[in-house]
User: Fold these one by one.
Assistant:
Number 1:
Amino acid sequence: MASLKDVKTKIGGVKKTSQITSAMNMVAAAKLRGAQQKMEDFRPYTEKFNQAMTSLSANMESGQFPLMEVRDVQTVEIVIVTSDRGLCGSFNSNIFKATEKLISQYEAEGKKVSLVCVGKKGNAFFKKTGKIRKAYTDIMGSFQMFNARSIAQDVAANFLAGEADKVHVVYGKFMSIAVQRPAMETLLPVQPEVNESEDAVEAGKGTGDYIYEPSPTEIMDVLLPLYMNVMIYHAMLETGASEHAARMTAMDNATRACKDMIDELTLLYNKARQAGITADLMDIVGGAEALKG
Amino acid sequence: MAEKINLEVVTPKGAIVSEEVDIVTAPGFAGEFGVLANHAPFLSTIKVGTLHYKKDGNDKELMISGGFCEVSNNKITFLVESAERGHEIDVDRALQAKERAEKRLLQTKEQLAKIDRTRAEAALQRALARLKIAQRQ
């Protein structure tokens, strides 16, 4: 049995750990609020953007834009958006699993896969596969639009050069504070969503008599790269919010586990202490008996 | 009172303006254009510059950077990368950006790749647009 002192040291250690985890939980909660706010602020922009894209592409041939060109798929590029930091439960490994599944699916069809990693964790995980074409690390903390833009430009250039025939993006979708799921979307060739919602139908109605300045084709040329920025920025924001939510849950669990452990150890400590007292008493009683003769 | 048009300016940081206004003037692809109530459906790309609008006789302005604008159903929506009011503009930063861009543009063609040139030109435009509004305040 462990000595009294050992148990006491251990209780102290676990207490310290639980202090750290509960502090991390609070930090994650605060950061989550910020990230969620950013996500909400960005939503109207995305919605309006998609509306405009849908109404524009409704009366246009998709084949005339290089970024919308559907090619025979030989090579596939996957943009993986993960967090820069760990200690957030199974959040990143879920994204890895989803990505690996996608990779093996494409490779089974005999297609070549290359990766673009956004976030440190993805880069570290996929490094040994040798598939990484480019990695962007330490940019998940600040959410800057220009980061998304440089990634979008690079991916688009690669697509236009014919190095990749299809580009997917995998990220952690924020469903709620408790649930985050890896999600996959097709980035290139661009396929504007054809949704049947009322807004889209209404937006589509007026398209016939729109005045375009410059021509629809030229507007589309401006819009398409912007659309990619929006998609990548969106994926980054979602992953950021999911990361903090996942860390919050993980740290909450850790704090609870610490508490259970402290309870158990305290019980052990008290048992040991009692056993010690009993042994001491036995000694005294034994000594007194002996003296009586 | 004349009829009004609903103006919305949306950036990645959220909606900056959402108001009923009398008239909107903005720097479009083919030059400055004005929009009054009940304008025909219209879609244009937007250049860096100043967005003016009038509400109840008061002139207001915003610095906007590139994007596009859509008019439909008596509603004008600007989707731009950034929009700032005069008092929000950091004059020192804009001045620095202007100097930096000008210095870069003075370099010869060999020294400056084409992509850097377009980027510097865009930065200069943004800085100038910011300064223009900030100085009027």
Note: The interface with chain B takes residues 38, 40-42, 44-45, 48-49, 52, 56, 145, 203, 206-207, 209-214, 216, 218-219, 222-223, 226, 233 of chain A (CB under 8 Å).
Number 2:
Amino acid sequence: MYLTKEEERVLRGDEGEVKARALKVIVKVGEIFGAERLVSISHAHVSGISYFNIRKYGVEFLEDLVNGGAKFSVLTTANPYAAHYLSFNGRGFSRDVIDNQERIINALISMGARAFTCAPYHIRRPKVGEHLAWAESNAVLYANSVLGARTNREGGPLALLEAIVGKAPYCGMHVDEERYPSILIKVPRPSSLSEAAVIGYLTGRMSPSKIPYVEGLGRVPEEWLKAFLAGVGTSSSAPMVFLEGITPDCRRVRKGNIQERVRLSEEDVRSFIKEHSPPQEVAGNRLYVIGCPHVSKGEIREIALHVRETYSSARSEELWIITGCFSLPCSKIPAKSNSKVKIVEGVCPVVTRLDLLGIEEVVTDSAKALHYLPRLAHVKSFIMDRKEILKRFRVRLHG
Amino acid sequence: MDDNIADITIKLKVIVEGTRQHGELCGVLEVIDHPISFLGDIDAESGKVRGGGSVKGKILLYPTAVGSTVGSYVIYGLSRSGNAPVAIVTCNEDVVTTVGAVMADIPLYKLVDCSAIKNLKKYNGKVFCIRDSILVMKK
């Protein structure tokens, strides 16, 4: 691989052992993918932040970097952490969980992490053609597909090391030639946010590894696009989707050249939603979650207007509306809340062992959360549209 | 096939050179003949393989690492807890293993001929050495 004089200097250890080791990782990974050189990145986004995922060895890895003097050299944001400071019906997490999650957060902040959210595009919208090193699939898909920025689907640890060096291998989605669709999928037009999410999830299933060209989605609101792309990223490893009329790269490709063509039917979408709808009877402790991916400040303002009205119920259910910790320090006090409705920032319930709080089932408007909740949070999951969820808590949206 | 043990010489390609140890690397062979997910399949604190032995001090062979990228942290954790293998040999260069190996300073090699992994499985538990990118049984 070609390295600049500056990169060779870093690799030799002139800027410290940690930075040299980090660059060595990036070069080795670049060699695997046949990258001829590295590219400077303007924004890194790190995943693998929940203590429930990275455990003791992740904490040690991060603290060893800090002790070695590691600092992020470009704008760096991080994924949300586990909901370690929250409680459900008064039940919270153990000291061990809280302390270790705090150690992870503190290590990232001391290296220079500026925010904790799965929607880093809400902190700063990268420009067309900008090079990034983002982990977190929904963010990667949003950057490539909606903004026309360039990032591969980095793993959590790799993005962390790229944040330290400020470089990524120049390959994959950084290169024009690799940004091409190889399957055309015609999808039905969604009529709600959760329908958009399910259409995304089913689109990803039809294209588990290829980049799809998606036709038929139409001009939908930004939060629907987020939901759609988060769905795609859940069932597919594709780092990008060509969205007709939206993706800047569409100009470069001719959809007539795409050989493979498939269609997602309205019936498939309807039956998926029916199959995953919650039963009328609430069987056990039920949590409602809005905010996978995190809701934006605009969305939160819209929702917050309607949570003034105090919701109370004898039922053992709560609504958590999740948004990013978009600037430090992160608040640990749920905003605009009483005991049943909480607006919380910086956390991700999906990467939290919700079963330890006594939660048995979660109802969400997100297809991504629907998929991962049973696997990571150890709870049953169901899907319901955002408007329906808010209505249930007497929280009304405009329109 | 390779029934004469003394004749086995397996060619390797260096992916990540270790910086702590030089010359010959020896250890008991631990062959896992299916893709592994470090997160879930290997316990970083004990070095134990799910449903198998331990990777501590071994020459660990597997076709490829799959699953969560947290796997890189598990490899690092093995090193921190003193349960690291002396070397890792894989069929495919994968990101999870590569990131973990560089950060944990574990030498990483690739099998030049991937089909060798099937034959090597029967030598599980025997001591092998890696010298000049050749894997041989210890005499």
Note: The longest helix of chain B spans residues 71-80.
